[in-house]
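A favour, since you know our structure tokens better than I do. Just paste the record in under my message, thanks.
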Amino acid sequence: GKMLCCDYEGVHPDVLILGKALSAGIFPISAVLARDEIMLCIKPGEHGSTFGGSPLSARVAKAAIEVVIEEKLAENAFVMGQLFREALEKIDSPLIDIIRGKGLLNAIVTVPQDGVTAWDICIALRDRGLLAKPTHEHIIRFAPPLIINEAQLQEAIHIITEVFASYHGK
């Protein structure tokens, strides 16, 4: 599995900024990671943060990372994400332009036509029990939980396929 997006590209950033996912979204924390040669350019007193250095935040983040590793959630995201994108690629719809994503964060870039927008599609998905987020007026973002299993993923794919099929001929 891949823990970070840069791992997919084989990129080693000079500075890496981590946010809310660092604590599984349950406690406020963020982090700036860099090699010593970069971090040591900042002298004491040159930069600070209101909530920096919270031991509770650090402990929550440590526990969240341990769960991701122990339960192999990154590996699951990698495998389920590949299955998800492969299935989405098979949907034959003039409303679909591009399927893209990494891990379990995926999107369908739509081609709005006949008055059907990403918002409309997301409402139809919701009405069938699947939540997705419309962005930029033509993108549908999917972010299932890292613990999703193949049966649950197939159920989501079935709903997505049905919704896109319902717009054929409209």
